[in-house]
Structures are given as structure tokens and as C-alpha cells.
Amino acid sequence: MNITASRILKYALFAFAVLAALIVLFINRNLASLADLIYPGSLLWAHGSLLAVEAVAFFWFWRGVFGGREHLLHADDDSPEGRAAFARELVRRVRTNPHVLEADLVPSGPEDKERIDQCLALLNKKADAEIEQNARRVFLATALSQNGKLDALIVFISLCRLVWRISAIYNQRPHPREILSLYWAVVTTTFLALSLEELDITTEIGVGFGQALHAMAPAGLTASIPFAGKALQTVTAAAIDGTANCYLALRAGIITRNAYAYAFAEKRPSRAAVFREAGGILLSMSTSLMDKLGVGVADALTGAVRTAQNKTVRASKGLVKTIGVGLGMKSRETDQG
Which keywords has UniProt assigned to this entry (predicted)? Predict the structure, then answer.
């Protein structure tokens, strides 16, 4: 995390702490006054008891957040010392990991490289399944909603949930500093490029437009057909939006997985390698995703047609009834005349 972001975060935390302290003191004052009304003379005792309980709770929270064990922090400098400390702590936590315990692959220690590799392979497989499942949900949700603000909210919540669930596969009950470090590492690697070489424009554009061209081809051929052209253009827009968001989810998931999976490697995969892997997974998923999108659109069109038919039938019945009533009234008028 750079110096500016760290300083802003410290100021924000300090302001939040001051505000929280003022709120707590205000609540204490009201509770102590209420106790003094019920039991006269108990103002100081009530105030002191509340402060003592809050001091114990604060000490417990401070010890849990800032004290004790070593942390799984994703350092920006990626120094050998930082990687060694990260790998050492990861091994310690892997030994109590429920997935590892269930598979009976608990390593004897940091020197048991074979078991450690087997453990990481098992956890990587579970992380890959989580990444693909989340990417499919993002694709279908954003493709079918076709709502810009709602799509942005869906993607944001899905990415936050994805990073949390993948990190929980490797690291149960993470420390708050570890969570902050992981989210910052994912954000900087996924969304912020430090140079044009890291951005890899060719890969970025190639994957997105490759999928978009496949989706746009049918719409271009049938654009002149009144109903089919409009429907396929809608499907095309849905496919492009869903593909872009799915690709973003894959990238974020792969970066989160790599933060743990390559803890013992001398060098983590580059951004270009991450983009290529995300593009490969997207290509392998494209057929099934388009099939599901087609089924969803077909169901929606069928429902729309059925609704239109029902409205037409109800309107026809109403018209017939109105005509019948009118003819009956006319017939009675004729008989009376």
C-alpha cells in the first residue's frame, strides 16, 4: 500500500475512533443518568461500571487486531523476507485447514514440501471451482438485468464476495489487516496498471472483442428482419455486457487465488499471464454461458407472447360482452316501441 493511501486510511480511522468515543460517552451519560433516577446516588458507580466494561472490550479487540500472531500480509515490495514469512504462516494455517484435514493431507511442517504442494493443489482446485461458479453468476445476472446501475452494484458485491470466499478457502478467520491487505492487492492488480506494459492492451481488447464479434454476427445478419433483428440485437447487447463483467470477475478471482497459490514460488505470474488465463477460461465457458442466456431469453419471450395472448383474449371477451349488451338493449327498445 503506498504512503498516500496509508496516510488517508490512518486519518479516516482516527476520525472514526474519535466519533465512536464521543457516541459511547454520550450513551454512557444517558444510561448513568437513568440509573441515578431509578437508584439515587448511583451516578458515579454506573458511569464507572460502564467505562470498565468498555475498557475490557476495547482491550480484547485491540489484542485480537494488533497483537499476537504473525500476519498473512500481501506486501507491495514482494521481498524474499516477506515471501518467506508469508509462506511460513500459510503452512501453519494450512495444517488446521478443514479441507486439508478432510483430505488427510496435513503436512508435518514447513520442510514437508510434497504434502504442502498437495495441499495447495487441493485448495487451488476448490478456488478454481469457486471462480468459475461466481463468473457464471455474474454473466447471467448482468446479461439478463440490462440495467447499468444495477449491473455495477451486482458486479461490486459479487467481486467482494468472491475475494472473501476464495481467501476463506486458504485462510479461515482472517485478521482485519490481512483482509485489508488482500483487497488492496486485488484492487491494485486488477484495476490499476502501473505502466503501459503491464496494461497489455492487446490482450485486454482481444479477449473482449473476440467474444463480442461472435455475439454480434447473428444480429448483423438479421438486422433487417423487423422482429428477429430487434430481438437478436438485445441478445447481443446482453452477451457483450455479460462477457465483459464475467471477464472482470475471472481476473479478480485468479489474482486472489494466485496471492496464496504462489506463496512458495520465487515469482508470481504477471498481469499478462493472469489475463491470458482469464481469457482461456472465458472461451471454455462461452458455449454453456450463451446456451443459458439463450434459454433465459427464450423463456422471457415465451412469457411475453403468452401474456400478450392472454390480454388479447381478455380484450376480445370484453368486446364481445359489450357488443352483446348493446344489442340486447337495442332489442328491448325495439320491442317496447
Answer: Membrane, Transmembrane, Transmembrane helix
For the chain, the domain total comes to: 2
332 within a domain of the structure (yes/no): no
Distance CA 206, CA 211 (A): 9
Kindly state whether residue 162 falls inside one of the protein's structural domains.
yes
CB 178 within 8 A of CB 93: no
Domain boundary among 66, 93, 111: 66
Domain around 54:
3-66
Domain boundary (38, 66, 94) is at 66
Q: Are residues 119 and 25 in the same domain?
A: no
3-class secondary-structure state, position 60: helix
pLDDT at 279: 83
pLDDT in tens, 31-63: 889 888 888 888 888 888 999 998 888 887 777
Are both 259 and 188 inside the same structural domain? yes
Pick left, alpha or beta for residue 97 (phi over 0 → left; psi -120 to 50 → alpha; otherwise beta).
beta
Is 313 a member of any domain? no
Q: Is residue 231 part of a domain?
A: yes
Amino acid found at 236? T
Looking at the structure, tell me whether residues 44 and 161 fall in a common domain: no
Maximum pairwise Cα distance, the chain:
111
- List all residues 6 or more positions away from 210 whose beta carbon is below 8 Å from its beta carbon: 283
User: 121-130: buried (b, 16+ CB within 10 Å) or exposed (e) per residue?
Assistant: ebbbeebbeb
Mean pLDDT, residues 135-150 taken together:
79
Average pLDDT over residues 259-264: 78
CB 221 within 8 A of CB 232: no
Sign of CA dihedral 200, 202, 205, 211: negative
Query: Grid coordinates standing for 4?
Result: 498516500
Q: What is the pLDDT of residues 75-118, one digit of tens each?
A: 555 667 777 777 777 888 888 888 888 888 888 777 778 888 88
Q: Tell me which amino acid residue 285 is.
A: M
